[in-house]
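ok here's Homocysteine S-methyltransferase:
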Amino acid sequence: MIDLETRPLVLDGGLGTLLERRGNDVSSSLWSARVLRDDPGEVRAAHEQFAAAGADVLITASYQVGFGGSIPDAEVETLLRRSVLLAREVRGPLVAASVGPVGALRADGSEYTGEYGLDVAQLRGLHRRRLAVLAEAGADLLAVETIPSPLEVEALALELTALGMPAFVSLSADSTGFTAAGALAEALRTAASVPEVIAVGVNCCTPARVLPALAEAPAVPLVAYPNTGERWDAEARTWHGAPAPLAETAPSWVAAGARLVGGCCRSTPADIAAIAAALHS
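and the structure:
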C-alpha cells in the first residue's frame, strides 16, 4: 500500500551520480543502464546506500532501458525485470520502476526538449511494451519521470489509463517543451486526470524551479525531486556550477503539497539523509 497521507515519503537520489562515485563508468549513452547490464551488484549496492540514508522509495535503474533504443530489444525485457528485482532485494523501501522519456533512449539531448518528430500514436507505441513489462515485474508503482513535453505526457496518460498500475508522473520543468504559457500546468492536469496516477510534479530541474512549478499543479498529491542546481551540458556530457543544499528548501515543497520528495541528478545519499532529517523533524 502506498500511503501519501500519513507523512511525505522520501525518494532516493541520483542513481547514476552514485554509481559514478562508486567507481563505475557511466559515460556511455547507456549511462546507469550499462552498470545494470554489466555489474548488477553495483546497482544493488547503490540502492542499499540510498535506503540506509533514509529513502522510503527506490527508483529502479531502468530510465534508459526501453525497446527501440541503444540496447538490443532481445536484452531489454531481461534488464527491465532485473532492475525491479535488484531494488526489491533491498528490504524496506517501496520500489518505483523508472520510465524515462523517449529522448533518454536516444541519448541525443532530446529528453530536454521533447522534440522527437513523433505524434501521440507513435509515442504510445514506443512506451507501451516497456510499461507492460515493468507493470508485471513486481514494482509497487511506476515512476514516469523527466517527461519533457505535453505531447509525451498525453501519450503516457493514455497508456497508463489502460494499464491499471499506480504511478506518479514527473515532468522536466526546465525543458524547452514547457516554455509556452500554461503548457506545464496543462500537462500536469493531463497527468493528474488519470485514475492510476497517484501524484504529479517535477524533477530534473533547478531547485528554484520547484515551487513555481508546483504552484501550477492541480490540487492532488505532488512530487518534487530536482537536481542539485548544476547545469548539464548534453554535448560535452559534463556538469557546470555549484550544488545547492536540497534539504534547506525541501520543507517548503512539502508545504506546497509535495508528498514524494527527493533528489535527481547529482544528489547523493548525504542529500537524501539531510532531506529525510528535515522532513521527519
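+1. The chain is about 45% helix and 15% strand.
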